[in-house]
Amino acid sequence: MGEEKLAGYIVDCENPQVNRFADEYIRLLKQYYCVGGMPEAVARFVEYRDYAQVREIQLSIINQYEGDFGKHINPNELPRIRMVWHSLPMQLAKENKKFFFGQVKKGARMRDFEAAIQWLVDAGLIYKVNKVTKPAVPLKSYVDMTAFKLFLIDTGLMCAMSELDIESVIIGNDLFTEFKGGLTEQYVLQELIVGQRYHPYYFSGEKSTYETDLLIQKGKSIVPIEIKSEENLRSKSLKVFCDKYKPADAIRFSLAGYRKQDWMRNVPLWAVEGYK
Fold first, then answer.
1. How far apart are the first and last CA of the chain?
2. N or C: which end of the chain has fewer CB within 10 A?
3. Using DSSP, how many helices (H) and how many strands (E) does the chain show?
């Protein structure tokens, strides 16, 4: 987008310029939510700055994906894959983003859709974030295979599949409120896993009294992550986690500027790359 200096600053999330140019970063972040990272969509937006053209490309990509389902899938499994695929926007719009089979089909159980979900994961079309039963090293040893969240591979495709009004995202219209959390979590997840740097999980406390949005393992440390779509800096769940498990590092991603506190760091959403 011709913003080489701004791109350079966020290599380090502690760079003072990351806070100084917050307004510009927020504007560009909202653009990215809508355009995403699919190469053809990006190239078209860079050239024409036209969201309508971008949306056409995104819908074409989605149609191509869906057309490929029938070419590579057992016909008996095809309806289940389509149901999971089309349920993703609805699943991410919920406050609790754990995948709920009853929203795919009334009375559905995990065994009915397990193969369909795995096919979409293996095809590289969705990300699966499992719950862990204990926030300890190695996280992979504590995976709960029955509880997970599903995300698409791209924010722009998610906006298109959800028929999300682009103006609502760019201007911050109230119509965007209910989906804002899911889209922001989708974005952070993409940033963390690019290059296979991290394998994120999530964790719920006893009786689900609190939940960490994501957990990552950095060497011998477990890092809890809370994701806020706005400047709201209340971190009740993250604080409960930190008080109980005393992690060496804790992160909150939000629209507020970079700041370091005794027990956690707030990293701007536009500087997730700089945190990594």
1. 22
2. N
3. 12, 8
User: pLDDT tens digits, residue range 19-37?
Assistant: 999 999 999 999 999 999 9
Of 276, 62, 86, which is closest to residue 188 (Cα–Cα)? 276
pLDDT of 75 strictly over 90: no
| Count of C-beta atoms within a 10 Å radius of residue 143 | 15
The shares of helix, strand and coil residues in the chain, as percent rounded to the nearest 5, are 55, 15, 30
Separation in Å, CA 173 to CA 26, 177, 185: 15, 7, 19
Cis? peptide before 138, omega within 30° of 0: yes
Amino acid at 197: R
The two tokens of residue 121 are: 């994961």
